[in-house]
Amino acid sequence: MNLRRIATLVGAMLLGVLVLGLDVLRYSVDLDVAWLLVVRDLMVIAAFVLLYLFLELSEKERSDNTIRGIGLILIAGIVVSIATAVVALATDVEPFEAKEGILLPLSFRTIFVATFINFSLGLFSILLFRLLHGLVLYKRKRGTKRNLTIQIVLMLCASVSTIGVPPLERNILTTILFGLAVASMVLNSFRLSWIVYLTRREKVFSLVYGFLLFGLLTVLNIITRGGIMNQLLLYHSSPMREFSSLALIFGNIYFGMAFVSTLFHLPTAEEFERKTTEITSLHNLGKLINQVFDFNELVDTVTSMTLQVCEAKACWLEILQGRDEGSERRPRTIKGMSLRTMTGGRLVHVVGMKNIGMSDIERLLPFSEHTLRDSVIEERKPVVVDSLSKDRRVKASAQGAKPTGSLVVVPLVSHSEMIGILYATKETEFGFFKDDVDVISAFADQATIALENSRLIDQSLERERLTQEMMLAQEMQKRLLPQSLPRFPVLQLDAVSTPAFEVGGDYYDFALLKNDRLGIVVGDVSGKGVSAAFYMSEVKGIFQSLSKICSSPRELLLAANEALAGSIDRRSFVSLIYSVVDLNTGTLTLSRAGHCPMILAKASGVTYIRPSGMGLGLCEGAAFADAIEEQVIRLDPGDVCVFYTDGVTEARRGEDEFGYERLLECIKVTRVLNATEVKNRILDTVKSFSSNEIIQDDLTLVVLKWHGSDAHAQSVVPVNGGSNE
Amino acid sequence: MPNQSYPLTEEVMSDFKVLHRDSGRVSILELKGYLDAHTAPKLEDAIQSLIAAKRYHIVVNCKDLSYISSAGLGVFMAFIEDVRNNKGDIKLSNMSPKVYNVFDLLGFPLLYDIAKDESEAIKKFVQMAK
User: pTM, whole model, 2 decimals?
Assistant: First the structure.
């Protein structure tokens, strides 16, 4: 309890006690002072104003439950009535003596009884008035508040106009104000919109309460307006009697009206309630669209809401999958999912079954036959079957028995594409009216959006996942390439490899071999992307193991071909160029399995070194071995060797290709630079050539610069390869 | 092997054509334009339907073939075994130097009969039959 509430309550009680004390004093000593009566009236009014404030402060928020409020008032009314009756019975038969319009009590008892009755009735009047105030303003229209304010002002005026007037003399002004107040009450009693929003059950309560309150208030009105009760009230406080009386009359009129109004609303209560449920459900489904993305959950929600809204017995949803659709629309994991092939090869997923099983659905609308399902798919309009047993579109089951009840079938259409069908059945015939179909259709529309959203979200999640996977794959593949370049005093190496997509089929590697030799391999798997990346990793494995065993490049290529033959796809192949450099002598031995020729840049000129060869995986055995040649080159200090993939030579600018000539020219001018510079210059040249094009192919470059001190013969010495030599 | 992510995929697709002609027992496929991963299915379909019709004597005329990628080469690899097992062959003819270079780098001339022109390829089939 806060201070203000305590203050108001204590104030009201103090004033009450003060008035009581004054009355006792008046009774004991003859105080014939006119202004004292006015002061007394004002004190009583002040007490009630404080009581009103106390109630106002106590009730922070008005409860929404109208019926409960009415019920409580009814109980309060009964309690007050009983209490008043009991106390009144204890009163003397002749309590007052009338003298010049003023009532003089004949005993102390009378004073106490009058005080009690006036305060209890006054309190009840205030409670009643507060309730009525809330009911009238339930749904505010223009003038609602104004009319009520006029009424309150009239009531207060009527009440105040009695101040200082002797209780038994009736003032004409009071009568007029009283009449006007009652008239405005009648007007305000038409404000009954709260009844409309009650549920059926609540309306029944409202009817009973309204009737009882009407009766109770009528009785209270009659009792308080005559006889001893009237005298007691008049004696204690005319203004309060006036106010209580008006409040009771207001309640009387209002609840009388409410009773009649409720009576009229009762027949439509069910319908109204249904509409309200429909609106609420639609609203809820709309909200769900933004919340539920899980397909299964959504389907479950849609069907259970459909059941709820049209009070159907069973309900289910079928998701269609078109002929030309890939797996995209296929809902992934569906609880109790069943797959059925339909006429026309369309897949149907039956989901969200409520109170019905797959066998029942199959019996009702066989998937193998042309049924209502197909007509709905064709026409894309809702269909209602009022009587399953009589409708021709429904076939009898194998046992010859037709199902009973009614059925509604509604298509789910999104962007002029059928995505599914919603079904609901009732046990009774003629179970679905036009507005049911409207609601289910509205439901289907909402459900369509929700299902499409869920699908799109799944799709983007899937895409996201794939992107992540590809990023991971890219990282993995980067690690398959050398993480650092081998360093030797006699030669310098540099290399680069960029895939066209996340992953690619290009490969390069180095291997340190016995007797101070270095193996350099560059390869290219046919095709691009993931499939190429898989073969690339296989090639790496093969190279890593074979390079330790095979002493010559040709030998390695033959072994690699045998190793790959078993696993490679018929239409795929791998091109590889493998050279072994003797770090002591500066001889480079080279074999080529269908790969782009090596470029050798010497002081005397730049040439392509192209021993004959064949791609790995194209053929096996002797035919392959015959095709592979080996070539030996003596490297001189300053010589540059360039290995590359066709991403370099086939870089495009419109119709034009970078080609072998441009590559040769580029190396001719950069030959004197170090390996890194040569590599960068080639990259830059290729990039500026195809400036406007995106990188279209995996591109790999390996550059070797020979520093070795001792110079040997500088001619290129081809050594005949081939197994027959 | 460029072009998988060529921006105008549709145009590239339509840039490749396979024309089919018969000359006696020999079927001639004339290739036009770019043969890469995107357009390879067209050629695949064409050869597939020849095999389905039991026509195993195939000459692929590359006169107007402006480019071939590794995926394009793969198409020939996919069918050659089938065709040869049925006593037929896929012979190639009329290659531009650029296209021939791609075949040559990979050692295709060792595996395939690459004739100078179409009539020479047909002649070889006739001789084979004798």
Answer: 0.58
